[in-house]
Design a protein that fits this description.
By secondary structure, the chain is α+β, with helices and mostly antiparallel strands. It is built from 2 helices and 4 strands. The protein has one domain.
């Protein structure tokens, strides 16, 4: 059954690609009296982490400044997970 086997491998490949490119949960930490609000996101790449942070800030209508990036342990073979934290610095700027 070459057709069924090929379909199975395509499904495995697609699942792996989605897992590697996927992102983790997004968190919003409200402001405290001495700390600004924060947005925390995660991704499997450094660039993806920054992009996810910017996208989540856009969805919330705020501007953020990256304040921390941490790499966690290995989750999938040969991949790490990155967590980015950004401080909310104000409302989103209108497009020029």
């Amino acid at each position: 059954m070459p057709g069924a086997a090929g379909a199975a491998w395509r499904a495995v490949g697609l699942g792996f690609a989605l897992a590697v490119a996927g992102c983790g949960p997004h968190y919003y930490v409200p402001a405290e009296k001495d700390k600004p609000a924060q947005i925390v996101v995660s991704s499997y790449t450094k660039d993806g982490c920054v992009q996810e942070l910017e996208a989540e800030a856009g969805r919330r209508g705020v501007e953020v400044k990256l304040t921390d990036m941490e790499a966690s342990g290995w989750e999938l073979p040969f991949t790490k997970r990155f967590r980015c934290t950004g401080a909310v610095i104000g409302p989103a700027k209108p497009p020029p």
